[in-house]
Amino acid sequence: MENTHTCEFASAPINAGLQPADKVLLLREMIRIRRFEQAALKSYQGGKMGGFLHLYIGQESVAVGTCSLMGHDDHVITAYRDHGHALAVGMNMNECMAELFGKATGCSKGKGGSMHFFAPDKNYWGGHGIVGGQTPLGLGLAYGVKYKGLKGSAMCFMGDGAVNQGCFYESLNMASLWNLPVIYIIENNGYSMGTSLARSSVYPSCLAERAAGFGIEWDTLNGEDVYEVRAKVQVAMERAHNESRPTVLEISTYRYYGHSVADAKHKIYRSEDEIERYKQLHDPIQLFKSRLIEEQVLTEEQYDVIDNAARQEADDSVRFAEESPIPSEESITEDVYFEVDRQTLAGRTGRHFFND
Amino acid sequence: MPEITYREALRHAMAEEIERDQNVVLLGEEVAEYDGAYKVTEGLWKRFGDKRVADTPISEAAFIGMGIGASMLGLRPVMELMFWSFSTVAWDQIVNNAGMVRYMSGGLINCPIVIRGPANGGTNVGATHSHTPENWIANVPGLKVVCPATAYDAKGLLKSAIRDNDPVMFMENTLLYGEKWEVPDEEYLIPLGVADVKREGTDVSLIAHGRAALTALKAAELLAAEHDISAEVLDLRSIRPLDEDAILKTVRKTHRVVLIEENKPFCGVDAQIAAMIQEKCFDDLDAPVLRLSAIDAPAIYSPELEKRQLPRPIDIVAKVLSICR
């Protein structure tokens, strides 16, 4: 049954056109995310970084599948579990790891941390820490794309906990009312921090169904299958491109670690059996690896080469981060105001900072 | 020079900037077809059409956030809040997104957005509609805040705010919308961060912003006519960036200072200025720095009492007399 399901999406036009090398690349990107985060976890546990570390491990197929569809005018914005999307849009491990270490070579020069990765040159707009706070920004990216007359979209990722924030519904109303090409992608991993879906949300059949109240098309996806992710997100993207209409997608997925690494109770509010079952039966990397071996576009040996390279790349990024300098004290007041940074006339007029 | 109202000055500023830059859009509740809740945007929708001037639903968090997201892509949205008091429901968007995204992205992103609307008491609309959040905003590095007192300043500052590449929170005053001032026909800009001496004087400095600057001018007239005291009135115009040089200059000139604002006293804008003056002009002072703010309670409804709650010219005179005799 599951195989039939997978085959169906494998033959979707967006997947049928994939060359073997493209398919291996999708797998490679998923592996890179996992190895990056495992290396980050090790450093975090070794006391090398501060703050929180929200791991994406278990959900890699979502970021890789969706971001693999991006064209020139398709944008991405997400919440605080943002490492996977960052690597999926093409940010490199060094800048991401260095950011976790709070180093000057980090993607945000050590000013953002784990929850705040950005790469506007890659249409990646963060990395946002306040649950649901990015949903109006995603609306704005879509509005900007439409205002400029471009054929594009904004994929706005959010967790299942974020669906209960008010600004999300305000945004859905405006997205539909103004025909904006935004795609809200709920990555439903079953838990809003320590509270299960059943204890936090009312849902007759699913969360995405709430979109119906706004006249917005919606769908649900099995996130463990990268083919399905690509096939169904592509439908939403075409809707955005061709009809300038929004979509709400709910992708079922699972995180193997806690809400953050500091979430000490994650084996209390859910069972070890549950976690183990996902790892054994639903792991997106293992499933896609098996699939590609079945399709004879990958061998075990090739997989090992890719995996070892990803591990090496992650280890190298840790070394890069460790060897990188911490930001200078002067940099604390840099990147606050554009006009001051550029020392424009406006930036040189009046007092902007009130130290001393 | 022609006289126009404060609201017309704002309208002219927006119209000129819409014509100048195709990335400028006006968005907010009732700004388009209704012609503006306070008629500030009257006629602009008819003139520029749906694309440039659009009504939003009553969803401050979403539409302010939408404007911020669009500004990250290079648009220059001018967002109207019907009252700045309504910013509280968009606070996360303003503070965490507009205020923080440049910093947290290490300078990769900037937000050239203007959020404007009235921020004042004195109109008997109750405490929830009478907030003056310039001090709340000024406490957030990354945001800028401007409080024009006259039509001339409103126009020149709004044009600069729209061209600024940082998020500018522009706070107007409904009591001033219908007041007239001389405003030239030819284009001009007033930079942010430059205060204005609205009246020269030698005995005491009255430093204020927004409508309080006009109250200070009335007090200065009373002081001259009835007490032979020459008061200098410095209008800050812009809170952040702040014209520190102008503040220190007037204090060094008169040696006495009264700070006036319609904001509440605790950690008000004037608290920052008082600290700055005592630190940098201690030896120039001949008297303690005095402050006059709104009476420290939520804005009262009762029309007669609300007039009393905000600083009046006679209150300023009393403060001045306490240090000038």
Quaternary state reads heterodimer
- How many helical stretches of chain B? 12
Helix content of chain B: 25-40%
CATH class (first level) name of the largest domain in chain A:
Alpha Beta
How are the strands ordered across the major sheet of chain B?
A: 3-2-4-5-7-6-12
Radius of gyration of chain B over all CA atoms, rounded: 19 Å
Helix content of chain A: 40-55%
Count of separate structural domains of chain B:
2
Order of helices and strands of chain B: EHEHEHEHHEHEHEEEEHEEHEHEHH
How many distinct helices of chain A?
Answer: 14
Order of helices and strands of chain A: HHHHEHHHEHEEEHEHEHHHH
State mean pLDDT of chain A (0 to 100 scale). 95
Ends distance of chain A: 69 Å
> Any idea of the CATH topology of the largest domain in chain A?
Rossmann fold
The portion of residues forming beta strands of chain A comes to 5-15%
In brief, what are we looking at here?
The complex is a heterodimer of chains A (356) and B (325). By secondary structure, chain A is α/β, with parallel strands linked by helices. Helices cover 44% and strands 10% of the residues of chain A.
Descriptive report:
The complex is a heterodimer of chains A (356) and B (325). Chain A folds into two domains: 2-324, Rossmann fold (3-Layer(aba) Sandwich); 326-356, no CATH class. In chain A, the strands form two sheets. In chain A, strands 1-2-3-7-6 form a five-stranded parallel β-sheet, with helices on both faces. In chain A, strands 4-5 form a two-stranded antiparallel sheet. Chain A has 356 residues and is α/β, with parallel strands linked by helices. The radius of gyration of chain A is 21 Å and the shape is globular. Chain A is 44% helix and 10% strand. With 325 residues, chain B is an alpha/beta fold. Chain B folds into two domains: 3-182, Rossmann fold (3-Layer(aba) Sandwich); 196-323, 3-Layer(aba) Sandwich (Rossmann fold), CATH 3.40.50. Chain B is built from twelve helices and 14 strands. Chain B has helices at residues 6-20, 44-48, 60-72, 91-98, 101-104, 134-138, 151-163, 211-227, 244-254, 269-280, 303-309, 313-323; strands at 3-5, 24-28, 53-55, 76-80, 114-118, 144-146, 168-172, 180-182, 196-199, 204-208, 231-235, 238-240, 257-260, 290-292. Chain B has a seven-stranded mixed β-sheet, with helices on both faces. In chain B, strands 9-11-10-13-14 form a five-stranded mixed β-sheet, with helices on both faces. In chain B, α1 runs parallel beside α7, α8 (211-227) crosses α12 and α9 crosses α10. In chain B, 59% of the residues are buried. The mean pLDDT of chain B is 98. At the A-B interface, α7, α8 and α14 of A face α3, α4 and α5 of B.
